[in-house]
Amino acid sequence: MRHFAIVGSGPAGFYTAEALDKAYGGEARIDILDRYPVPYGLIRFGVAPDHQSLKAVSKRYDKVAESAGVDFIGNVTVGRDISVAELLELYDAVILAVGAPHDRKLGIPGEDLPGVVGSAEFVGWYNGHPDFADLDPPLGGSHAAVIGNGNVALDCARILSKTRHEFEGSDIVGHALDALDGSAIRTVTILGRRGPHQIAMTPKELGELGHLEAASPVVEGADFPPLEADDALEPGHRKSITILRGFADTPPDDAKPKRMVFDFFAKPLRIEGDGKAEKIVVERTELDDKGAARGTGETYEVTASLIITAIGYSSSPIADVPFDGGKFVNEGGRIAERLYAVGWARRGPTGTIGTNRPDGYEVADLVAAAMPAGSSDGRAGAEGLKRLLESRGVMATDYDDWRKIEETEVANARAGSPREKFVRHEEWLRTLGR
Ligand SMILES: Cc1cc2nc3c(=O)[nH]c(=O)nc-3n(C[C@H](O)[C@H](O)[C@H](O)COP(=O)(O)OP(=O)(O)OC[C@H]3O[C@@H](n4cnc5c(N)ncnc54)[C@H](O)[C@@H]3O)c2cc1C
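Above are the sequence and the flavin-adenine dinucleotide SMILES. Below is the predicted complex in structure-token form.
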């Protein structure tokens, strides 16, 4: 019997577990470890709470977790409670699926002023991530800005613009819903260094902006290249640009009090304010012949007392694992003998949930090729892990604990909400009587 440890229970971890379970057909024990007693990584803590249909992918992972060969071991932080070297002693192979939880920095003056928050923090706050329960983003000013031109930037801008009523059926946490309901923000400016053709926003997410109850998108027609230039775009991307062009052709709805302003060709130079963020000084850009943003020297200011940076993520280094500053150094998913990486920990923060599936299957194939089924190195696996954690006073949780937490959250749900998420580690543990 082979023993495998997958560190991280997000999409990449679960697809890899599914693939290993299939590849070894009952001849392997696969333990999925996570820092938290509940699984699913960014499906729980990242994907927008008003996108419940996307979160439904977790039903597929539920099936993997129910498989006889797969176990969930929560409340264990690898690198703190146990090292990768120790896991390699206990398991035939260790697969890091730890994601990329940290915001990339802008690298401009003023970004540490109060009022500037990373998207991981802001998204974590409204999604009930325990690290960000106390974020308390400033919502008292009339202007906010989101820096970045991807779907995460759109998520943040949309969440800031929705009415309480529009969150019905979502799993947004109560503290965020109440705070957003009292928000004074009327204008959200979305800043991108390049133009409409260079956005990384998908049609579904953009299209939603045209149907918000209280907010209208504002796009400048002069920012677009000639219409014929769209012919060269890949069809999905062309669809996004067509939606944006539609916004540019439609005057904002005066009956709606909020505006989502797309400010293209805008490079933030610095953030200024008296002890807190008040404005962004921005340089107008243009595209050079390689399609990169080039400053024009013209500057202007964008007022914003809340500034959310959504310009990408990086992984956390783990002791003794080679790290390149953003992700783990790997070749096709292999880091070293018996040590692998999948998902954002392998590729960096790109792609959709589905992109992690081929990634996980590819790495499972590598593992299976290196360690054929039927053979064993006699490792102690989960039994050894539990003994070691117990000796260190680490309170590991299991599948039944996760289910108990989930059932309690669903039972606590407010009317119209699929669940009332716990937002603090202690609440999880209290539910388990620990
Ligand atoms: C804000 C946001 C919104 C998104 N929305 C969408 C969307 O709408 N549609 C879409 O297709 N994709 C979306 N994505 C992308 C999608 O979430 C990712 O592709 C996917 O989650 C990456 O999977 P992963 O398993 O690599 O990482 P993650 O989902 O981050 O999972 C990593 C797991 O590892 C655990 N972990 C981390 N460190 C340790 C440690 N040291 N010890 C133990 N456990 C650890 C974490 O707790 C977590 O459970 C979004 C991403 C973000 C950031």
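The chain is about 30% helix and 20% strand.
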